[in-house]
């Protein structure tokens, strides 16, 4: 995560805020960034493949 992302997120919060809320926002941003990076690198599974996998679990 870039420092600029942390600063931007901090600046979006009100003057008084809960630290847990700030940390939760940063975690969500990090997870989204990781998912986008995985998608770029072909480390994802198609929706149709996931549906087939889940269908097997439900048998």
Could you explain how this protein is built, in words?
This protein is mostly helical. The protein has one domain (3-57). The chain is built from three helices and no strands. The protein has helices at residues 3-12, 19-40, 47-57. The radius of gyration is 17 Å and the shape is elongated. The mean pLDDT is 95.
Q: Which keywords apply here?
A:
mainly alpha, 73% helix
For the secondary structure, the number of strands is 0
Number of domain units? 1
Cα Rg:
17 Å
Mean pLDDT: 95
Unreliable parts: none
What form results from the Cα inertia axes? elongated
Number of helices: 3
Order of helices and strands: HHH
N-C termini distance: 41 Å
Residue fraction in strands: under 5%
Q: Give the % helix.
A: over 70%
- Major sheet attributes: none
Structural class: mainly alpha
Record the SSE blueprint.
Blueprint: H1 3-12, H2 19-40, H3 47-57
Question: In brief, what are we looking at here?
Answer:
With 59 residues, the chain is mainly alpha-helical.
């Amino acid at each position: 995560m870039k420092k600029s992302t942390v600063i931007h997120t901090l600046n979006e919060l009100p003057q008084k805020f809960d630290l847990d809320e700030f940390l939760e926002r940063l975690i969500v941003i990090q997870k989204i960034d990781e998912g986008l990076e995985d998608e770029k690198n072909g480390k994802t599974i198609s929706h149709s493949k996931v549906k087939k996998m889940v269908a097997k679990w439900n048998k």
